[in-house]
């Protein structure tokens, strides 16, 4: 599904379905610490009913499944959900193709709603009241994010420069260490309980880093087949010149926990 938003990439369209196979293979990269932070908050475990918005290939539900929550994942991309179902074989996870703005689960269905790497895509003024409605009394909304740091990591910085060469309107560049910003409209229904930002290293090989970069919005989700072929050839050549076979990429992660005011 082609998505266009004038606030993202200057309105250039992108389609996660174009890169779902690479997304499934190369974007399941959160380290154990990332999941432990969630568990330390007492969330997404022990029979809690959890809705994962923008679930993509089901990375969060799959990796946290063993902790005992009952997961439901939704995503606007049919191809992403197909990958999620394939990778979740044998797990009792429900997946649905639906935009967050159109979700219609019954009132007070979920103990926790998670939004990982997708919060900024939402039409927040139209979403916030529905999220509040679907959460149980004192239910939690957990927003999660992780990104490489291009100004602190040479390999990440050079890869990002190459993305911008092919996608100059890509607005995902230039990340710095900062807290997640929650739009003011959430103050009507939610209280912020906790927020945290922390540094971490994520391990890659040349192959998996190339795949991770290919599976980003400014590359595989938006470039033409010919552009993508040219980008990948140039990226692989660059990595052979500046990167060892295996390496760590400096990232930061952030979370914010909100509680429904019921």
Entry summary:
The protein has 262 residues and is of the alpha/beta class.
Keywords:
S-adenosylmethionine-dependent methyltransferase activity, Class I SAM-dependent methyltransferase, 32% helix, SAM-dependent_MTases_sf, 262 residues, Methyltransf_11, 26% strand, seven-stranded mixed sheet, alpha/beta, globular
What report would you give on this structure?
This protein has 262 residues and is α/β, with parallel strands linked by helices. The chain is built from 8 helices and 7 strands; from the N terminus they run ααβαβαββαβαβααβ. It has helices at 20-26, 32-40, 59-64, 78-87, 124-134, 154-166, 206-214, 225-242; strands at residues 49-53, 70-75, 94-97, 110-116, 135-148, 190-205, 246-260. It has a 7-stranded mixed β-sheet with strand order 3-2-1-4-5-7-6. Helix 4 (78-87) links the parallel strand 2 and strand 3 (94-97). The chain starts with 19 loop residues before the first helix and ends with a strand. The model has no long low-confidence stretch (mean pLDDT 96).
Radius of gyration over all CA atoms, rounded: 18 Å
Distance between the termini: 36 Å
Strand order of the largest sheet: 3-2-1-4-5-7-6
Sheet bearing the most strands, described? 7 strands, mixed
Q: Which structural class do the helices and strands define?
A: alpha/beta
Sum up the overall morphology in one term.
Answer: globular
- Our estimate of the beta-strand percent is 25-35%
Mean pLDDT: 96
Beta strands, count: 7
N-to-C SSE series? HHEHEHEEHEHEHHE
């Amino acid at each position: 599904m082609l998505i266009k938003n004038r606030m993202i990439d200057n309105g250039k369209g992108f389609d996660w379905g174009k890169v779902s196979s690479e997304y499934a293979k190369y974007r399941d990269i959160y380290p154990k610490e990332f999941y432990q932070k969630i568990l330390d908050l007492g969330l997404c475990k022990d029979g809690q009913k959890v809705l994962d918005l923008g679930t993509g290939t089901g990375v969060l539900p799959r990796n946290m499944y063993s902790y005992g929550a009952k997961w439901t994942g939704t995503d606007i991309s049919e191809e992403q959900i197909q990958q999620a179902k394939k990778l979740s074989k044998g797990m009792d996870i429900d997946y649905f193709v639906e935009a967050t703005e159109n979700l219609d689960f019954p009132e007070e269905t979920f103990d926790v709603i998670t939004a990982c790497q997708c919060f900024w895509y939402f039409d927040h003024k139209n979403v916030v009241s529905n999220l509040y409605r679907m959460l149980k009394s004192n239910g939690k909304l957990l927003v999660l994010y992780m990104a490489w740091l291009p100004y602190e990591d040479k390999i990440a910085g050079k890869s990002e420069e190459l993305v911008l060469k092919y996608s100059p309107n890509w607005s995902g560049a230039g990340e710095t260490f900062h807290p997640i910003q929650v739009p003011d409209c959430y103050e009507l229904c939610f209280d912020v309980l906790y927020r945290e930002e922390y540094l971490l290293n994520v391990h890659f090989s040349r192959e998996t880093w190339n795949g991770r970069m290919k599976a980003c919005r400014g590359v595989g989700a938006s470039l033409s087949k010919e552009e993508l072929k040219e980008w990948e050839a140039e990226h692989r050549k660059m990595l052979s010149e500046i990167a060892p076979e295996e390496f760590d990429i400096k990232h930061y992660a952030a979370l914010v926990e909100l509680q429904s005011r019921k």
